[in-house]
Description:
The chain contains 14 helices and 16 strands. Strands 4-10-9-8-7-5-6 form a seven-stranded mixed beta sheet, sandwiched between helices. Strands 11, 12, 13, 15 and 16 form a five-stranded antiparallel beta sheet that branches. It folds into two domains: 173 residues, Aspartate Aminotransferase, domain 1 (Alpha-Beta Complex); 264 residues, Type I PLP-dependent aspartate aminotransferase-like (Major domain) (Aspartate Aminotransferase, domain 2), CATH 3.40.640.10. Strand 1 and strand 2 form a beta hairpin. Helix 12 packs parallel to helix 14. It is globular and about 60 Å long. By secondary structure, it is of the alpha/beta class. The N terminus is likely disordered.
Amino acid sequence: MRLGQKPATPEPAEGDANASPRRAAWQAANLGPEARALLAADEAVFLRQSLSTPCLNTLAGAAGSHLTDLDGRRYLDFHGNSLHQVGYGHPRVVAAVKAQLDALPFCPRRYANRPAAELGRRLAGLFPGDGGSGAKVLLTPGGTTAVGLALKLARQATGRFKTLSFWDSFHGASLDAISIGGEALFRSGSGPLLPGASLVPPPEPYRCRLNPGGDCAACGLRCAEFIAYVMEHEGDVGAIIAEPVRATAVHLPPPGFWPRVREICDRHGALLIFDETAVCLGRTGEMLACEHFGARPDIITLGKGLGGGIFPLAAVLARPELDLAPDRALGHYTHEKSPVGAAAALATLDVLADEGLVERSRRLGAEALARLAAMTLSHPLVGQVRGLGLALAVELVTDRATRTPATDAAEAVMYACLTRGLSFKVSHGNILTLTPPLTIAEADLASALNIVDAALAEVEASLGR
Length: 465
């Protein structure tokens, strides 16, 4: 332990740990010599960090809903880093990227190009209200940079630097993003952070700190009133930034929350920024997740799946009134208007529309949620299931009355599922986060849910439950 370092405080991991006895045991039982050699080579050259290096396994292929490792095992991928809305290697996206590489592989910032201009027009049309009339766009290489750009734009628009965001949220891993993010894994030991970044309890009825009873209809939205209280006492907050739906845990806000927050922002002259990096493009059963909640934001960030699961690309969408800094460099990025990235994104938008994937996400998500809800009747480990479109979460508990997180059981279920051919993320220590491609075959979705069912039964049997 370094001088001055505080002792580690035991708390649930915010993702599946990449250094645990159970992971080592799974690797020993499932990885061959070639995979082991590649993992060793990978760890030798990359800085080690939680959630990534050292890695879990090695990959040889990714297509549609499946990953294939070096040992030839196939896995349904319900993780995908939230970027595989159209699956891996969709033929139309691949073809668009290849064609654009032949035509115009790169475009320096001072030049315009047709794919980027068309993508900007298409993205502006997604902005809620009035068909995106007049909305403006900036492109960036990733979701974290889009968040940073949105924060800079809010400062320019309001003349204020203070922000309000939520504990347990995630907006990226850069210093500005972790300042407004609320996950300890990214914040701890990285201070001092940006000044003026205040965090408040998240609007989560399932584990509300302000209303432990969880009866949102009776409490009068204390979560929103707490925001109003902070805004009033700070006096000069420039923006509230939030995920409209908490992506990793699929926590849904109580009814009326976002319209109330919109009113609070208007009352105090603050902007409302929705970070949709991980939940955009049909994931929740609407093109944008905020469309579920009836509150028009001032700025939206998109990312991850925008590049079709191939090209790193994100975007900032803003009300036209916010086009007010022509003499400032808001987002001066080398690949700002990449024609290849734009071609991938345009193909992705076409696939979403032509294959009806937004509606499909809504339908399949409702069916999957009903199947998961039925598991609460047969599996005592399942405390609650949640979902919106094909963003699904299964919360595991040791006791339903106290909602005590079953963190060890969650890890055991994950590895039992991996052994059966299903990959997903464990969030907040005890939440199985299931985010399949929107293109997933219905038979594959049913197979994945069967695997979850069987893995829960296996782990419960080992626990004597």
